[in-house]
Amino acid sequence: MLLAIDIGNTNTVLGVFDGEKLEQSWRVKTEARSTADELALTFRGLLAEHTVTGIAACSTVPAVLRELRSMLSRYYPDLPTVLVEAGVRTGVSVLTDNPKEVGSDRVCNTAAAYHLVGGPCIVVDFGTSTNFDVISERGDFLGGALAPGIEISLDALAARAAQLRKVELVVPRSPIGKNTVESLQSGILYGFAGQVDGMVRRLSAVLHPQDPDAVEVIATGGLATLVIEHCETVTRYEPDLTLLGLRLIYERNI
After folding, report:
1. How confident is residue 162, by pLDDT bands cut at 50, 70 and 90?
2. Does 167 lie in the same domain as 228?
3. Residue 72's domain spans which residues?
4. Could you read off the pLDDT of 52-71 as tens digits, one per residue?
5. Which residues make Cβ contacts (< 8 Å) with residue 217, sequence separation at least 6?
6. Active-site residues: which are they?
7. Domain stops at, among 83, 114, 147
8. Of 83, 109, 138, which residue constitutes the final position of a domain?
9. Do 16 and 52 sit in the same domain of this protein?
10. Does the pTM exceed 0.85?
């Protein structure tokens, strides 16, 4: 079985693949100060019922990536391992000013999205930040846009406004909030849905000017389910997109 590890700023997602099938996945909090031994303890606890034969990983947190390397060399020294970084065959051409700036998770998402769609598409990844990844008809990563994520925005609003507080992110009775809680829920949910639709339409018009509506829009990320049902432009939801990308990249390198 292949263990795929996606280490993000807020959460770490792990999944085990039996061939092409994702058997099981887990989501745990990312601790930037976790040691290699603590990572091993967490992973071994989750994987107790699974026999891992290979590992693929990506990380947007340098401190955790360093400890992950140490953990893999100490606890899994004999397993074939692929860490998505410079020099790894990904099948993705990164056509940006500085390809080294592009997060490895975005490269994984690009590989997976093109594998699923086979044409021009946009990935909207709802995480610590909301990432818009633009992928060409050849599967190249062209760039995109980054915006503050849902939880970051809500935290900042609660911290900077004396009479506002964090609220449960559920659909309010109406877009017209009748109290502070409903007003916040409306602004966050419908506001982010509107942001996604506005950005997707602008990006699609540049990516595929002949027929912008033909561009597939794939939503992923831990917070996607909060808003995608209110988005008009999202065409499919793939919660395990990054894990799929890790599997595809692993297969290219092992």
Report:
1. low
2. yes
3. 2-83
4. 999 999 999 999 999 999 99
5. 121, 122, 124, 200, 204, 233, 234, 235, 236
6. 105
7. 83
8. 83
9. yes
10. yes
